[in-house]
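Interim report to the steering committee. The following record documents the input for Quinone oxidoreductase putative (336 residues).
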Amino acid sequence: MKAVGVRNGKGNADALFIEDGIPDPVPVGNRVLVRIRAFGLNRMDIMQREDRYPYPLLPESGKIMGVEFSGIVEEKGPECSDDFKVGDKVFGLAYGGAYAQKIAVSEKMLMHLPANLAFEEAAGVPETFFTAIQAVHLVGNLQPGQSVLIHAGASGVGQSAIQVAKVGGASQIFTTAGSDEKCQLCRSLGADFAVNYRSGEDFAAVVQRETHGRGVDLIVDLVGRDYFHRNMASAAMDSRMVLVAALSGSKVDDFDLRALLNKRIWLLATTLRTRDADYQGQLRDLFCEKILPHITAQEVRTTVDKVYPWTEVADAHKRLESNVNAGKIICIVEER
């Protein structure tokens, strides 16, 4: 098969190329072989391309990038159930290997493609919505009637988290984004307040004003260092902050632990790719229960920013690196 490779093992976006002669994956055990029609881009792909991924990659990850995809079932392993059949349209999550024509993944990480969902849209769903469900529900434990602050609201995870919180009964949803257009997108997805951080407006001040000084019950943070102190100011008593990423840096200067003690803030951190298949299967089941029906009913959506043929994967990476995208960047894989 063909797959996206990186010349010399690491490099910038221009080092990406379509490599031929890659051995086809084999669906052993409960694995399902899927011919990929589209895959979604994530920032972890850039870090993997540059050989600076901050967590140890599992053996299942392999050298090929990509963790979310859509496609058609071609073959099943001997231990698979009857949940999927050859020819079924599916989408799912993987530890790696989605930048390719074929992938073999555990059936626990696959889902049936709804009839009204295109391959392009479905390829941008698993990583973002699974991460959002994990942050908002499994780790963040958001309860109906509670308020939430979601950073990087126009990112794939941010957009998903806004909608997961909305469906979950959040009373107020605050978010941050980098332009007025991105803020409007966040509001269209269910955010009550969207703060353009480039405008000079302080999200902590907005939270304090709109909650009458109480603060929010849950903070979902993908930014890290630059927002940490203002997150503490935005947090309510007995609130929770879930750290999903640290895009601005991971080292916080002049941090006083008293900020946590004074408000009894629960500081939690979570990752997804390093979790085992059983845990990711639990997230899949939660997604199918809480979110997939809303996607099928077109009440919840994934915003596709731009679609590229996979022969232009370098340009797709450059767009993601530029941070101009509002939503998912998708690549279409040629069928043969």
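The domain at 3-125+302-332 is CATH 3.90.180.10 (Quinone Oxidoreductase; Chain A, domain 1). The committee is asked to note this result when reviewing the revised timeline.
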